[in-house]
Model the fold of this input.
Amino acid sequence: MRTPACIAILLVAVVVLGAGCVGESQPPPEEAEKSVLLEAVARINGELESINASIGESARVLGETGLRSAAGKEAVQRAMLNHPYTESTLVATKEGIVTMAVPESYAGTVGSDISSHAETERSVQEQVPLVSEVFPLAEGYAGVAQSYPIFGAGGEYIGFVSVAYRSDALIGRAIVPLINGTPYDIWVTQTDGLVVYDTTPEEIGRNLFADPVYQAPGLQEAFSRIVAEPSGSLEYSFWERNWERNVTKKAIWDTAGISGTEWRVVATRSADAGEVPATTGERPPVADTAGDMKAFVGEAAAYAREHGRTDALAAFNNPAGEFVRDELYIFAYDMNGTVLALPFQQALIGADRSAVHDVSGVAYIAGMKRLAAEGGGSINYIYPNPARGYAEDLKLGYVLPVDETWFVGSGVYIPGVAATFNTSVRETLVQRVKAARDYAQKQGREAACAAFNDVSGDFADGEAYIFAYTMNGTTLALPYQPEYIGENRFDLEDRYGVRIILLESAAAESGGGFVYITYYNPDTGVDGLKLCYVAPVDGEWFVGSGVYAGA
Done:
């Protein structure tokens, strides 16, 4: 998994760990860099304001119709569909009692007392729109709670509505389209040093002041400047984004945030980004076949079992060793997602990459963990390809468990396959699936699946059809292949050996997510690469849909 990792935070981070220190005086940032930064800040603020407007409308309806009203619930659901990356919404009284939770999978929180929560106390006391700092949510992830006060018909304060989402999802929606194809990296930190977004996902969640990797005095000086000053610039030396060499980095920052939030937005670029590294032309050719890759992984797993973990990892981490062959190399992870072997990114050894996503939102490390726990298998993901100047290309990975505690894997690029899905297409997909989930939660399984299986109905619009499975793989809805209804397809593999339903079920069990598959396209009559999104209806079954590459 050769990728530029740990870059964006460590970019500014290595003020003294690289060849240079924070300069006493730096030239003013170039206008292009300043333009990118200001646009990034504007886009982040625009996303926050858009959520504010949506939940403000929900608050208005709830104030008019009541904190438990059907109309209020519909308004909350509409607001969430307007922002597909949002995870959940709670409505609470001024006493902190939850009266409504959306989606239905959170219904168990209704009636609970959240008055002691810091964000609840702040909402009740201030009675204004608020954006929280990032904090651990009950849903199991670190996120932001953005709230809006609810006032009754007489103008009295009666409670608040609060929507939760991942900060990196909101910020990424604003940033990724802006910097794709540019020499810029962007990271965002709270003023307490918590990194809430980074173009290198491994850095999200680290603290600039507490993480051991950032404890060099000069580094702390740089970070202290960034969080203390609303805007500014620095210059330093560190690895370029593909980890080939040290380069001079220029960083410029400004501040984003509304309703009490203050996020430092840092844009970085290499001062000599236009130069081609000398090693680029020396790279070996891309491996030819998936079969070679799978055999290679099998050999590595056998080696690890025979020689033991310590010796095997030493061999896997040797860039000049026997487990680096042309563009194939062995990586290894603990079953909890911690990196054990990455021969070309050894700075990541010991890092937890469980939450890492590719550019389309596919949590491929989490998928690999599940596959390894099930005995191994294949998975598709998009990854920088060193043979093509680190362009984002489709890659087929294959993993095998060594034992119940760790696994090994490798990957091969699949050339010539269009594998890009823009933000609008992905968000439309998520909206479609979440609308189907909401319908299923309201109508029940039998009625919902009947609607999903109706080829002339609203849920079977060509390739945009809705499918449904039980968590253990039994087909519930597949409108263009009705012969599979009732069949268990948990072990179904696509042409590349990707275990389709297993990976979709795993994504649904984690609360919802994306998976790449190769599957039959009813609009063309042939198989095509498909990005699917799935969402759980409850703990027993899930719904999903997909979009084909190039659509």
Observations:
- The chain has twelve helices and 23 strands.
- The longest strand covers residues 391-403.
